[in-house]
Amino acid sequence: MTQVLSPTGVVIRQVAGRIGAEISGVDLREELDDATVAAIRQAVLTHRVVFFRGQDISHAQHVAFGRRFGQLTRREGKKHGVHPEGFPEILTVDPKADVARYGKNFEEHYYRKWVSPLAGWHSDLTMFVNPPTASILRAETTPEFGGDTQWTNMVAAYEGLSKPLRDLADSLRAEHAFFTGVQLYYTDQRDRDILRLYCDDPQGAVHPVVRVHPETGEKALFVSPGSTTRILGLTQVESRQILDLLFQHMTSAEYTVRFRWQPGDIAFWDNRSTCHFAPTDFAHLDADRVMHRVTLYGEPAVGPDGTTSEQVGGEELRPW
């Protein structure tokens, strides 16, 4: 399905069955008028994630584009990661840049500790009581092959559950924290350093398992293998089996789209209605993959029964 929005000239072309669209007819190096911003915003709400090809924008233009859709946010201090000089709003996603914090081959090391092949699926920063509304990721350097990102439509996944399971999910709350999808061992020095870092300064939140989208009113699953630790009020066995069922369901191919990156490409997704999967097929290669991300300031999730998110460790995200 291709949609041309006049008079803005923005062209929106759907790229997968239930999620994803490519936007053309817009130059993000230029100042966008209100009609174009509104068209892009609606496309993100409708398609969950949208893609712009070949947008050779600067860090300043990236920040300015993000601010057209709301306040920006980021993690505080060193845990934010690295950023381009002069642009603390931006997180640079570069495995080689994390060597100073986590050691050489950090990503490859922890891929081998995943408790499930699905462990890389996540929504950004759900261990905060107010996770980002959306994320805007820009590719600077990409490998010749590999490094694709996938997204899944969490509204469609919720709607694809049987009614008894939807009713159950509507009533549940779950805890989110860092390093949930990996098995850390006290006998491993590197693991002990990570455990110490997050035990000394814990960050966690409880969210409804189903959240009501504040702009569309749609219900979406709000759990992920990469950050959801447990469902409250259940035994560990019960929690694990229900979460595994939801994880398998939400990552079914019918709900997903896969994006092949090239330098200058941009992905803009709604963090409230999607999860995404970080690539795992290039960490063993001597290849650079440098991305830059800004995130939009968000709000606590609200469940179908009116329950809201609760911070159980650390502090909330703040506007930047």
Structural class: alpha+beta
Write down the overall mean pLDDT.
93
Strand content: 25-35%
Which topology does CATH recognise? Double-stranded beta-helix
* CATH architectural name: 4-Layer Sandwich
Summarize the structure.
The chain is α+β, with helices and mostly antiparallel strands. The protein is built from 8 helices and 20 strands. Helix 1 (34-47) links the parallel strand 3 (21-24) and strand 4.
Give the arrangement of secondary structure elements.
Elements (H helix, E strand, L loop, with lengths): L1 E4 L4 E5 L6 E4 L9 H14 L1 E4 L6 H9 L4 E3 L16 E3 L5 H4 L3 H6 L9 E2 L11 E8 L7 E5 H6 L3 H8 L2 E5 L11 H12 L3 E5 L1 E3 L6 E3 L6 E4 L4 H15 L5 E4 L6 E5 L3 E4 L12 E7 L13 E4 L4 E2 L1
Parallel strand pairs: 3-4
Antiparallel strand pairs: 1-2, 2-3, 4-16, 5-18, 5-20, 6-18, 7-17, 8-16, 8-18, 9-15, 9-17, 10-11, 10-14, 11-19, 12-13
Explain what the structure shows.
This protein is of the alpha+beta class. It has a single domain (about 1-320), classed as Clavaminate synthase-like (Double-stranded beta-helix, 4-Layer Sandwich), CATH 3.60.130. The protein has helices spanning about 35-45, 60-65, 100, 105-110, 155-160, 165-170, 190-200, 235-250; strands at about 1-5, 10-15, 20-25, 50, 70-75, 90-95, 120, 135-140, 150-155, 175, 205-210, 210, 220, 230, 255-260, 265-270, 275, 290-295, 310-315, 320. The strands form 4 sheets. Strands 1, 2, 3, 4, 5, 6, 8, 16, 18 and 20 form a 10-stranded mixed beta sheet that branches. It has a 4-stranded antiparallel beta sheet with strand order 7-17-9-15. The chain is globular. The mean pLDDT is about 95.
